[in-house]
Design a protein that fits this description.
about 280 residues, alpha/beta, Spore Coat Polysaccharide Biosynthesis Protein SpsA, Chain A
Length: about 280
């Protein structure tokens, strides 16, 4: 059974707050630096207000609103909670980690969700989105647990979100610079082209994992098993009328350890995304 430790009870007063969802599979070596970056940037209250006592994920899911309504209206608009400066909390989602991630969170008082088995990024991120939805957060940010994402870039995402009442703001490494010629950047070019062919819109950096979602999209991710934090879902939502834009961010090298995206895994990932965007997404309702 998955458990939730720390964080906040109830859902009062968080309509304008931002939740950083940190998927973590064996990232115990990197998480202290990630949390330090968040706390030094935002002065987040998540540590000081962490509560004792775990609750089951099924309790967090209670009271779900699963009405069958379109994700977006015909004009592409979606209600967006407003706030001034973004108040930021975070939750670490341990995806069946075996390296002491949960023990680290307990020792240091980090709010966390512990999944009993490894679900992969999609299932792990959905657990975080369920938490965000049940707790009433107005915005959720996909935030890596390896130190590649900078907490200071969340402000740019939030400002861009409110600038045009967007549904999703994607971080982009290439709004202010050109893509290089590496295999990964070549794959990003191909995914950008596939999205342009299927939606008529261009995204400069669809593979960047730093993304902010508004309340309406949080609900969709929390309740739909076919939603994952990947470019093919972004493409699908664009075709459904979601208002999506980009904001400039910087991406760092991971702090420690090795990424699972070696050359072969990266090639397989790009192929899966291209097939999904060009073929499979066309059959989704």
């Amino acid at each position: 059974m998955a458990v939730i430790q720390g964080g906040f009870n109830g859902n009062e007063g968080r309509e304008g707050r931002v939740l950083l969802i940190i998927p973590a599979f064996n990232e115990a070596e990197n998480l202290p630096g990630v949390v330090e970056n968040i706390c030094s940037c935002w002065g987040t209250e998540s540590l000081s207000q962490a509560r004792s006592g775990a609750v089951s994920l099924s309790q967090a899911r209670s009271g779900a609103d699963r009405k069958d309504v379109p994700l977006f209206d015909s004009s592409g608009n979606a209600p967006s909670p407003r706030g001034a400066d973004p108040d930021v909390d975070f939750i670490i989602v341990s995806d069946g980690s075996t390296d002491g991630t949960v023990e680290l969170c307990e020792e240091r008082g980090y709010p966390y969700i512990s999944l009993p088995v490894n679900l992969g990024l999609a299932g792990c991120f959905q657990a975080g989105m369920k938490y965000a939805f049940r707790r009433g957060y107005g915005y959720a940010v996909q935030f890596d647990g390896d130190g590649q994402h900078r907490a200071e870039d969340v402000r740019a995402l939030k400002e861009k979100m409110e600038e045009g009442d967007f549904d999703i703001v994607l971080g982009s490494r290439f709004l202010q610079g050109k893509k290089g010629g590496s295999m990964r950047e070549l794959g990003s070019r191909m995914i950008s082209a596939a999205i342009w062919l299927t939606t008529g819109r261009f995204l400069s950096d669809p593979t960047c994992g730093l993304r902010m979602y508004n309340r309406r999209v949080i609900k969709a991710f929390a309740n739909d098993l076919n939603f994952g934090p990947e470019p093919d879902t972004i493409s699908y939502l664009m075709k459904k009328g979601a208002r999506i834009t980009e904001a400039p961010v910087e991406i760092r090298q991971r702090m420690a350890g090795e990424s699972y995206l070696n050359i072969w895994n990266a090639a397989w990932y790009m192929l899966r995304m291209l097939v999904s965007i060009l073929l499979i997404q066309g059959f989704r309702a």
